[in-house]
Amino acid sequence: MDFLMANWPFALLALVSGGLLLAQTLRGGTGGGVSPSQAVQLINREKAVVVDVCSPEEYAAGHVGGARNIPLDELEQKLPEAVKNKATPVVLVCASGVRSGRAVAMARKLGYDKAQALAGGLKSWRDANLPVERA
């Protein structure tokens, strides 16, 4: 007990980080994005639009079939042109899922409440053995 009292900041840090890890595990570990199989369901059932936020060079090297390329730095200007109906589900994709997470925040700020990132990005799409197109 004396050890915990002497090192209470470290004990508190361990409890907080453990709680955050537990919350992430209970959420499914996707970081709030959709899995590749959930993305396919959105595309097929709800006519979701897939937007690849990678650079044109990355997009040309490989992308989700039917995805529209809008680089992240152009998303705020070009998303309203590409997806006119803000009620349409939008699946945002990048190489690893990092940029698409930022893209979701931008899209939601623009009023696209059904915008979601593909968890793990194009890498998870490929790992699920789903088709990839090249430009």
Q: Which regions contain 5 or more consecutive residues with pLDDT less than 50?
A: none
- N-to-C series of helices and strands: HHHEHEEHEHEHE
**Relative strand content:** 5-15%
Widest sheet: strand ordering: 3-1-4-5
Mean pLDDT: 90
Number of alpha- plus pi-helical segments: 7
The count of DSSP E runs of length 2 or more, i.e. the number of strands, is 6
Shape: elongated
Rounded to the nearest angstrom, the distance between the terminal CA atoms is 63 Å
Task: Give the class from helix and strand content and strand pairing.
Answer: alpha/beta
Q: Which percent range fits the helix content?
A: 40-55%
- Main sheet makeup: 4 strands, parallel
What is the gyration radius calculated from CA atoms? 18 Å
Describe what is shown at a glance.
By secondary structure, the chain is α/β, with parallel strands linked by helices. The protein has helices spanning 2-6, 8-27, 36-46, 56-61, 75-82, 98-109, 121-127; strands at 49-52, 63-64, 68-69, 90-93, 115-117, 132-133.
